[in-house]
Amino acid sequence: MKQSLLIFTILLCTSALFICKGQKNDLQQVKHILSAQSTAWNEGNIDAFMKGYWHNDSLSFISKGGITYGWDQTLAHYKKSYPDTTTMGKLNFTLIRLNKLSERYYFVTGKWHLSRTVGDIGGYFTLLFKKINKQWFIITDHTS
Questions:
Q1: How does strand 60-63 pair with strand 135-143?
Q2: Which domain holds residue 20?
Q3: Is the pLDDT reported for residue 132 higher than 50?
Q4: Which of 45, 68, 71, 99 is least surrounded by Cβ atoms within 10 Å, i.e. has the fewest?
C-alpha cells in the first residue's frame, strides 16, 4: 500500500511539473511574440510586426476607426496609418495582465506607447491569442 501511494505521489508531482512547465512555455511564447513585434516596429518593419497576427481572413483588429477583418486588411491599415518611421516612432508595450483561458487561448491586457518626434501617442490594448498548430497567434486585437 505504501509503495502504491509513493508511486501515485511521484506520478502526481511529475504531472504537475509538466503542466506548470507547459504553462510557463506558453507564457514565454506569448511574451516573445510581443517582444518581437516591438522590435520589428522599432526597426520600421511592419511586415515583420504582422508575424504575430493570425494570417487569416478571420483576424479582427478593432480601433477607434472601427473594425478591420483579415490579415491583409490589417496590414494595409497599419501601413496607411504609419507610412514611415517618423510616424511609427518607437513602440513600448507595458503588459498589465496575461490570463491563460485554456490550453488554446490567452487573453492579454496592456498599454502601448509610441515615442515620436511628431508627438507621442499611446493607449491600451486587449489581445486574444490562440494556439494554432502549436504556435500562438493574435486572433483579435482591440487597441484604443
A1: parallel
A2: 2-143
A3: yes
A4: 99
Q: Are strands 121-132 and 135-143 parallel, antiparallel or unpaired?
A: antiparallel
> For the domain that residue 61 is a member of, what is the CATH number?
3.10.450.50
In whole angstroms, what is the distance from residue 42 CA to residue 74 CA?
Answer: 18
Strand order of the β-sheet with 60-63 is 66-69, 60-63, 135-143, 121-132, 105-115, 90-100
pLDDT tens digit sequence for 57-75? 999 999 999 999 999 999 9
What is the sign, positive or negative, of the torsion defined by CA atoms of 42, 109, 79, 117?
negative
**Cα-based distances in Å from 97 to 39, 59, 100, 104:** 21, 22, 10, 17
* Cβ atoms of 84 and 34 closer than 8 Å: no
**Cβ pair 104, 26 in contact under 8 A:** no
Distance from C-alpha of 47 to C-alpha of 76, rounded to nearest angstrom: 10
What backbone phi and psi angles, to 5 degrees, belong to 104?
-115, -5
The whole-angstrom separation of Cα 122 and Cα 92 is: 9
Residues pairing with 122 in the sheet: 113
- In the chain, the number of structural domains is 1
